Prior knowledge:
Layout (H helix, E strand, L loop, with lengths): L1 H34 L1 E7 L6 H8 L2 H4 L2 E7 L7 H6 L4 E5 L2 H8 L5 E8 L8 E5 L15 E3 L4 H13 L8 E3 L3 H9 L5 E5 L2 H7 L4 E5 H4 L4 E7 L1 H6 L1 H18 L5 H11 L3 H6 L13 H13 L13
Parallel strand pairs: 1-2, 6-7, 6-8
Antiparallel strand pairs: 3-10, 4-10, 5-8, 5-9
Amino acid sequence: MIAQSLRARWAATLLLAAVQLAGCARAAEEEHTAARRKLRVLLQPYIAMAPLLIADAESLFAKQGLEVEFVRMDNAANALPLLLNGDIDVLPGTIMPGALNAMARGEPIRIVADKGYFAADGCTHIALMARPGLVGSDGASPAVQRVSTDRGASGLYFVRSALLSVGLSLDSMEVVEIPNAPEIEALGSASIDVALAGEPWLSRMVRAKKGVVWIPAQRILPDFQYSLIFFGPNLLQRDRDAGRRFMVAYREAIGMYREGKTPRNIDILAKATGEEPDLVRASCWIAMRPDSRIDLASILEFQKWALAHGYVSTPASAAQV
């Protein structure tokens, strides 16, 4: 009888302990979820956004206690005021005169990581594309009359530099800005002579035989720091720890990205961008440095050009960038 009573008490004790442990586990999980820092990050549906897409798909942000909401916009420059106002936390994009002007004014915005550069020995992620038959085999500069290009400063910086390298000037040409899809048809029908194109549109042009690579970006601007990660006041001042955790996840994702066109990476990018896996596989994946460090010299060189062309009013110092 005593033994039975002891066994009953022991069973009850074990049951109580199990219930308490389960309760503690649930409380800890709820506390962890509640403690997750919510971040708003700009996202565009391009392969070059791969580290962010990989970090999200592989739960790398969640592992760092972050809950990331992607804010979708077509133009990164339009999101700059949102970053400065604290409406978004992270802005991935090309180098922008507006960002440099804000830095020069002392506003809380900084470049914190590499998101793509034109590796001198890398594949062609961006190029001036020529209509078929425009460029002869003799190497002579073709007669270019109409150019389609993004009018953003970073795009014009490359286009002007590329044309100058073959003895041509953009100032003597008609400049139009045609959206990506109709631009392919315009090039194929010779409505335009040259177009600035990046992946995956570059590969689409080549596959459709509507355009040929004429001047690749890495030939004109070798190792140029094309794309970046910007932090604003939220992560620079208000919650630096969340910024640190973001960078841990981001660098881990870059490591996965640099593994190359693995089946898993292709699957993630195809699903996230809506592109066909074959096109994702065929496209040039822009180079990214394993430590995510930026090439400051090329940014300052771009700023010098932007200052000369009136895009930047006051240059930012190296410390402000």
